[in-house]
Amino acid sequence: MENSRKILFGGRSAIAHSLVVPLFAFVFVVLYKPFGILSLLEMASASWSFNITILLCILLGSVALMRLLLFLLRNKLSPNGFFYTVWCVCEVVVSALFVSLYVTLMLGGESGFFDVVGAVWGRLLGVCVFPYALLYLGFALYAERTKDAEGGDPASLIKFYDEYKKLRFVIASEAVVFIKSEENYVQIHYIDHAKTKKFVLRSSMRALEEQLLRHGLVRCHRSYFINPDHIKLIRKEPSGVVVAVLKEESYDAVPISRKYQEEIAHLL
Predict the structure, then answer these.
(1) Distance of CA 9 to the CA centre of its chain
(2) Where are the domains of the chain?
(3) Is pTM, for the whole model, over 0.85?
(4) CATH superfamily, domain at 155-267
(5) What is the dihedral of CA 235, 240, 242, 247, to 10 degrees?
(6) Which one of 55, 108, 136, 221 has the fewest beta carbons within 10 angstroms of its own beta carbon?
């Protein structure tokens, strides 16, 4: 559920909806002219092609604005599936209001604004239901495919909060390779679909220590926590420094302080 929420309300979803919904509506209307929409777009004095272009621009701007707002509010509102559905309907309503305002102005007052809204709302909903449904199914399937990257068991998930107690990142404990502290930030190095990635969080190692220990990570240095499952071997460098060589060859070895060497060796 957490993975689905993160994907549906994330930046990729916002960009996809902002582009796909208007373009789908534009192509669908041009090709099929459904729901008597041709007569609606010919009510104004401008040509049908001009009106449909303006419709595309209005729809693009409305959806992009609403998606940006949803993206900014996603952590404060903690939205769920029902909220997402209501938000999609609200996007269509907002788009219909702007389109109706345009048509009313083009008609020069021949029809009232609310009369035009009634004509626009149903037609726009009929057109937009298809891209919204397809996008939802697409992102839902993507979330299902990627949930293993975060782990299916909620108990194995590590939830990272920043210094303001806002949830910023969720990952399965087994996917974390190591965590490095750097001034006022921590770098979370992890594996996602066999690729090494990094997430930077504004927090301190002290604030994370209890949770990391609870999920099986261990401190190996004052600036590092490491996942023992990702250690390939422990090696002593010619300089005398002991390091943990990781199974992921793209990573450099992680230093191990003398006080933690025995504990790390015991875990291996």
Answers:
(1) 5
(2) 2-147, 155-267
(3) no
(4) LytTr DNA-binding domain (2.40.50.1020)
(5) -40
(6) 108
Residue 180, strand partner residues: 187, 224
Residue 198 pairs in a beta bridge with 189
Q: What is the 3-state secondary structure (H, E, C) of the chain?
A: CHHHHHHHCCHHHHHHHHHHHHHHHHHHHHHHCHHHHHHHHCCCCCCHHHHHHHHHHHHHHHHHHHHHHHHHHHHHHCCCHHHHHHHHHHHHHHHHHHHHHHHHHHHCCCCCHHHHHHHHHHHHHHHHHHHHHHHHHHHHHHHHHHHHHHCCCHHHEEEEECCCCCEEEEEEHHHEEEEEEECCEEEEEEEECCEEEEEEEECCHHHHHHHHHHCCCEEEECCEEECHHHEEEEEECCCCCEEEEECCCCCCCEEECHHHHHHHHHHC
Separation of alpha carbons 257 and 110, rounded Å? 80
- Please give the single-letter amino acid code of residue 250: S
Altogether, the residues listed in the chain come to a count of: 268
